[in-house]
Design a protein that fits this description.
Layout (H helix, E strand, L loop, with lengths): L6 E5 L3 H13 L3 E5 L2 H9 L7 E5 L1 E2 L2 E2 H9 L7 E5 L4 H9 L4 E4 L4 H11 L16 H14 L5 E4 L6 H11 L7 E5 L6 H12 L3 E5 L6 H12 L5 E6 L4 H5 L5 H7 L3 E3 L7 H16 L8 E2 L1 H9 L5 H15 L4 E2 L1 H4 L2 H5 L6 H19 L4 H8 L3 H10 L3
Parallel strand pairs: 1-2, 1-3, 3-6, 6-7, 8-11, 8-12, 9-10, 10-11, 13-14
Antiparallel strand pairs: 4-5
Helix pairs in contact: 2-3, 6-7, 8-9, 12-13, 12-14, 17-18, 18-19
């Protein structure tokens, strides 16, 4: 297996070992992000400049441990494959990490050829490398696109889960358009928009023929509509069913509002779309797609998104996901006064916030964040030294950094 074109994050504070690994990985054709601190490693993996195919991480770091880094990632996301580097005294810890889901470990000193072989074996598989991105460029988005293509080639029911504004209905349509049923009708029952879901379901089943029935809002479907659908499916319906729902659809079953047999029939083949808050690289990628389309209709066209705007887009939580992103870009492109889009064009509330009087809690948080940033800057990101400057424990500082997104 080749390393050419793969993106590796290297977390290693030893200059000699880190430099040797960095140089060899680049000679093998890999793109490498080399960081020397746990805090920097967390940022490099959570918000990468490219999708991360694998992580090489030393167990002992100046500001913590590789285990703390791995556990912090596991609390909020599915981490990329980890290859840990450890000394003989750290084997027990490495084995514990393997049980927690890490891919492999290697002990010092090691042969570089053997190291490269071990690394190549753990990297994320290159799935559908020729498939153009539709959902985004992150690992999570590429997984969504790969599953959509895979499920389109089959004929089983599919469940699409995700928050609002993530394009679940568009993904259902894409699966239909890629399938052998694309010449037949694609019919949608939107349970969010009708009070007559049972009648709408009856009409849709009569209309769909051998096409695809999309149940938009499975978790909002009335009991009568659920009964009608499961009865039809049990009788070997000629159509295919794709349903979309919110992430916590299982709670509807627990509350007695959704039939368990219907949900589990659909969950055998499932696609989960991660929110944009977990995919900052996709937020900027999607913003560029929206901008290009909207800018073509503008006279005169803008020159582009400024780097400041891209950074602000990347840092925003996007509670409304892609729907919010498009709405903000649409307003910004229409209202922009200059030749470039700036953060204030996309987030006009930033200017309004400067005139708003902050609460004591907001002022305290802002002051703490500023002081933490100053301490980390002075210590070159060394968390233990920064904690000493601030006269707090390393754990307290770490928790506050998590709170403030540092």
């Amino acid at each position: 297996m080749t390393l050419k074109g793969r993106h590796i994050v290297l977390v290693e504070d030893d200059e000699i070992m880190g430099g040797s690994i960095h140089q060899r990985l680049e000679l093998e054709g890999a793109s490498v992000t080399w960081v020397k601190l746990m805090g920097r490693g967390l940022s490099a993996i959570r918000t990468p400049r490219l999708p991360v195919d694998g992580v090489v991480c030393d167990i002992r770091l100046p500001d913590g441990t590789g285990e703390e880094l791995y556990e912090a990632l596991c609390r909020t996301t599915s981490p990329p494959p980890f290859l840990f580097i450890t000394g003989q005294g750290g084997i027990d810890q490495a084995v514990r990490l393997l049980r927690a889901g890490a891919a492999d470990y290697i002990t010092k000193p090691f042969d570089m050829a053997g190291f490269l072989d071990r690394l190549a074996l753990i990297l994320r598989p290159e799935e559908n490398v020729d498939l153009p991105p539709q959902t985004g460029i992150s690992v999570g988005a590429r997984r969504v696109d790969a599953l959509a293509a895979e499920y389109a080639a089959a004929d089983h029911p599919v469940l699409i889960r995700g928050e609002k504004g993530l394009g679940k209905a568009r993904l259902a349509r894409r699966i239909h358009d890629l399938s052998d049923r694309r010449a037949a009708p694609f019919v949608e029952v939107n349970a969010h928009r009708t009070d007559r879901a049972s009648a709408a379901m009856t009409d849709a089943i009569a209309e769909v023929g051998e096409g695809t029935l999309h149940v938009n809002g499975l978790d909002s479907l009335s009991q009568a509509a659920q009964d009608h659908l499961i009865k039809t499916l049990a009788a070997d319906a000629p159509f295919r069913t794709i349903a979309s729902a919110w992430p916590a659809v299982d709670e509807r079953v627990a509350a007695g509002e959704l039939r368990a047999d219907l949900l589990y029939l659909l969950k055998t083949h499932e696609i989960f779309i991660p929110p944009l808050s977990e995919r900052p690289e996709d937020a900027t990628w999607l913003a560029k797609q929206f901008f290009e389309a909207l800018n073509r209709r503008r006279d005169p066209p803008l020159k582009g998104l400024s780097s400041h705007a891209e950074s602000t887009i990347r840092a925003h939580d996007w509670p409304g996901n892609g729907r919010e992103l498009r709405a903000r870009l649409l307003r910004a492109v229409e209202a922009a006064q200059g030749e470039w889009l700036f953060p204030s064009d996309i987030f006009p509330e930033l200017g309004a916030e400067s005139d708003r009087f902050s609460t004591l809690a907001e002022a305290r948080d802002a002051a703490e964040r500023q002081q933490i940033v100053a301490a980390l800057t002075r210590t070159d990101g060394h968390i233990l030294e920064a904690a000493k400057l601030l006269k707090v424990s390393r754990t307290t500082l770490w928790e506050k950094m998590q709170k403030f997104g540092l």
